[in-house]
Amino acid sequence: MKFTLNQYLIVFLGLLIIALFILIKYGPKDKTPTPPPAQETVANGKPISTEQKINPQHFYAPILLYHHIAQTKIQNSYYVSPDIFQKQMNWLKENGYHVISMDKLYEAITNEGTLPDKPIVISFDDSLLDQYKNAYPILKKYGYPAIFFVKMNNIGNQTLSWAMIKEMSDNNMIIGSHSVNHDSMTNMDQKTLSYELSESKRQIEKHTGKQVKYFSYPGGAYSGETIAAVKYAGYLAAVCTKHKVYQEIINNSSIYMLPRIHIDNEMPTFIDWVQGKNLK
Q1: Tens digits of per-residue pLDDT, 218-243?
Q2: Cβ-contact 219, 256 below 8 angstroms
Q3: 80 FRET partner, CA 20 to 30 A, in 48, 66, 152, 272?
């Protein structure tokens, strides 16, 4: 029996459909890896996920940002003299402000605790030696906690030593990460980004014996990819350099974009900025 051309075409199409069905059902699967699960970390002895649910909230809690605490002939924007720094700390005390730790702020954001009236967080970047020599004694004098974000390429090179970092960690100060090399992370490849986040965290934990929970973006620069990498590295929160006194928590990513006020060597601007006035 001879087949017509149309019959040949019908048989061919039928076989093609069967082959496609077999390929789809039994062929090789997509090898794209599924996203890793949220990292589980520990805070106050309890497991906490970096993907935990956070209720939207908006509250006053300025995070102050300092770099050098030192006297120079020309006080540029990265230097606050020890005298002015002490006056600023004293002003907070005399005007009813409560200096809290980064842990307390984190607990308030995640509904694990409450804040006192007029809360303030004090932070330092760059692991600078004058922070230990000039700021740390003043903080101890007032009983104020603070968080020091350290970068690895500064440690021991005429800056903070691991012994100094360990001492501060043992005396009411929190140590956070400011990366290894302080390079901008917004266009960093994934391998380098992972190294900068995980290696700095690993080294600090090794030398302090404490979990590193918080990260400060080098230069204050970040992106969606950066935030995802910070979460995956196991950090609970991260700070940037937006000048705001209110913490606005919209979703789970908001805790990785906490604003800070960069403080300069003046009392009038300090008083205004702490109160949310005339912010740049």
Answers
A1: 998 899 999 999 999 999 999 999 99
A2: no
A3: 152
pTM: 0.81
Return the ∠ at Cα 107 (arms to 102 and 112), rounded to 5°: 165
Q: Containing H/E element for 209?
A: none
Sequence length of the chain is: 280
Helix (H, G, I), strand (E, B) or coil at 82: helix
Domain ranges of the chain: 41-274
Torsion of CA 247, 124, 106, 142, to 10 degrees: -100
Q: Which residues pair with 40 in a beta bridge?
A: 49
CB neighbour class for 122 (10 Å; exposed up to 12, middle 13-18, buried from 19): buried
- Residue 212 host element (H or E): none
Please give the structure tokens belonging to residue 280: 């740049």
Provide mean pLDDT across the span 129-157: 95
- CB neighbour list of residue 261: distance below 8 Å, 6 or more residues apart: 62, 63, 64, 65, 243, 244, 245, 273, 274, 279
CATH of the domain spanning 41-274, picked from 3.40.50.1260, 3.30.530.80, 3.20.20.60, 3.20.20.370: 3.20.20.370
Tokens of 170: 């043992």
